[in-house]
């Protein structure tokens, strides 16, 4: 029996547990898994809110919202667990606008022929060129599910994974360098369309973020989600793995111990943790474990890894601290005056922001990354008009006074909920392998979240987990899967 501890019950931790249990089953071996999670729920950054904090209303994704056709593990999980997919149609009608902090760079009219003409006049062939570059990246990415890719793994470092997948070169350039300098795409299209995609998906500017993350941002259209919340996938990964789940258990240290197995000289480990439901100074221990998978951003966990060979090689990874604001309002659209228009003009209900004007030294930095009218909740007694749920992403908190300006009056703010978290890693170009975290930190110690430096999605966390599960399986059972889980 191999005992494994997993730190973190998000996408990577739960899928690593599931995949390891799966590999044990198909190789006729046995594994015991304990998942330690510091919060009080399973799912990590995939979580939901309910309007008015009432489960009488359908949940709305607060974090990881969509996955796409190329995300084969997520789609297979939906099918395997008999969950229900829905198109990501959380759109309360209305049109799209791209705002540069001072004025609209683009504003749809709702008339398809007119909007198509506007797009062509402003951007020419650039939208088709952006699609072509994006599709080429997706084609390369899809190779990670192929038999040939599986035979070249599992990978002990991220550089090797990126090279074999054919995606390494996309890490060397910024999005603007890739799209404008290398591909010759219209500057205005990159600074508006691609920039808006990067800001809504990763909270970063196309001139800063690496090309791979830029292209992943462009691949976010036509996404789907799980009815009732995407985190159901990760809850099922955890439960189907038969792991013992320890919620509100914050791991503080991973310590080496001498193996108690007289037939093995392998190092084993003890997990030290604090249970938040008990006294703050109470420290508990669990073990011995043959392997530990760290599936949470290492420097955010506060784990003492001083006894591990390579923990010091994990680069300090800054994250984008994102503010998510949910507003229930009876305003049918944002205020035109706030955006420099009259209130008589038709306003977009989905607004993405671009840094174009700011990059050119004009205007001001947009106060939000995106604003989206998500859902019409219908009427409420005592309130004029239907209620609408709106979600805003921003780099800084949006004060109530600012929200009142956006929605025309403080009386139009029926309910407000604020969430903030470290949502995505800062993904600047990678020039040296040392900028990437090692996957294997010691004998039997593995780190999943370094993969986020390449791509930060629910799917790619499961891809990282599959690789680590195979490293563990190879180490203890001399067994590696000959194809991906998605291909089975």
Question: What does the model show?
Answer:
- GO terms for molecular function: prenylcysteine oxidase activity.
- Residues 107-476 form the Prenylcysteine lyase domain.
- Belongs to the prenylcysteine oxidase family.
- This is Prenylcysteine lyase domain-containing protein.
- It comes from Cronartium quercuum f. sp. fusiforme G11.
- The protein has 488 residues and is of the alpha/beta class.
- It folds into three domains: 2-46 and 228-318 and 428-487, FAD/NAD(P)-binding domain; 89-123 and 320-425, Polyamine Oxidase, Chain A, domain 2 (Alpha-Beta Complex); 127-142 and 162-222, no CATH class.
- 29% of the residues lie in helices and 24% in strands.
- It contains 14 helices and 20 strands.
- The chain has helices at residues 11-26, 72-80, 112-123, 126-141, 147-151, 158-165, 175-182, 187-202, 211-218, 231-240, 298-301, 356-359, 400-406, 458-477, and strands spanning 2-7, 31-37, 48-49, 60-61, 85-87, 96-99, 104-107, 224-226, 244-247, 249-257, 268-275, 284-289, 291-294, 319-329, 350-353, 370-379, 386-394, 413-425, 440-442, 445-447.
- A seven-stranded mixed β-sheet has the order 7-6-15-16-17-14-18, with helices on one face. It has a six-stranded mixed β-sheet with strand order 9-2-1-13-20-19, with helices on one face.
- The longest helix is centred in the last third of the chain and has 20 residues, at 458-477.
- The protein is globular and about 75 Å long.
């Amino acid at each position: 029996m191999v005992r494994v501890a997993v730190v973190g019950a998000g996408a990577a931790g739960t899928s690593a547990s599931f995949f390891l249990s799966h590999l044990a089953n198909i190789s006729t071996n046995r594994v015991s898994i304990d998942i330690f999670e510091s919060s009080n729920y399973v799912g990590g950054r995939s979580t939901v809110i309910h309007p008015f904090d009432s489960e009488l209303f359908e949940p709305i994704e607060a974090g990881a919202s969509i996955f796409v056709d190329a995300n084969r593990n997520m789609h297979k999980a939906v099918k395997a667990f008999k969950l229900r997919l829905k198109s990501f149609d959380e759109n309360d009608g209305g049109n799209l606008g791209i705002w540069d902090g001072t004025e609209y760079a683009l504003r749809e009219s709702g008339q398809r022929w007119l909007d198509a003409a506007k797009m062509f006049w402003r951007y020419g062939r650039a939208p088709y060129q952006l699609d072509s570059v994006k599709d080429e990246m997706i084609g390369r990415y899809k190779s990670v599910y192929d038999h040939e890719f599986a035979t070249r793994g599992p990978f002990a470092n991220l550089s090797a994974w990126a090279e074999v997948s054919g995606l390494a070169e996309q890490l060397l350039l910024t999005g603007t360098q890739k799209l404008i300098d290398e591909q010759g795409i219209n500057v205005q299209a990159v600074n508006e369309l691609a920039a808006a995609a990067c800001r809504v998906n990763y909270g970063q500017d196309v001139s800063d973020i690496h090309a791979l993350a830029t292209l992943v941002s462009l691949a976010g259209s036509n996404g789907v989600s799980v009815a009732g919340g995407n985190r159901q996938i990760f809850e099922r990964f955890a439960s189907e793995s038969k792991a013992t789940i320890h919620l509100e258990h914050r791991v503080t240290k991973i310590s080496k111990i001498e193996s108690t197995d007289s037939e093995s000289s392998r190092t084993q480990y003890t997990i030290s943790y604090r249970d938040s439901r008990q006294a703050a100074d109470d420290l508990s221990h669990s073990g011995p474990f043959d392997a530990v998978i760290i599936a949470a951003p290492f420097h955010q966990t506060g784990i003492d890894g001083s006894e591990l060979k390579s923990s010091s090689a994990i680069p300090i990874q800054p994250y984008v601290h994102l503010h998510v604001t949910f507003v229930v309002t009876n305003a049918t659209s944002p205020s035109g005056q706030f955006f420099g228009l009259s209130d008589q003009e038709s306003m977009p209900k989905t607004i993405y922001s671009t840094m174009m004007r700011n990059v050119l030294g004009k205007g001001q930095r947009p106060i939000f990354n995106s604003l989206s009218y998500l859902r019409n909740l219908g009427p409420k007694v005592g309130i004029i008009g239907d209620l609408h749920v709106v979600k805003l992403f921003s780099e800084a908190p949006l004060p109530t006074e600012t929200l009142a300006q956006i929605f025309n009056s403080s009386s139009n703010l029926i309910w407000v909920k604020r969430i903030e978290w470290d949502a995505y890693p800062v993904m600047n170009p990678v020039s040296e392998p040392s900028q990437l975290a090692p996957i294997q930190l010691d004998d039997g110690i593995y780190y999943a979240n370094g993969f986020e430096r390449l791509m930060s999605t629910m799917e790619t966390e499961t891809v990282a987990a599959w690789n680590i599960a195979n490293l563990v399986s190879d180490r203890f059972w001399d067994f590696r899967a000959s194809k991906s889980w998605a291909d089975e």
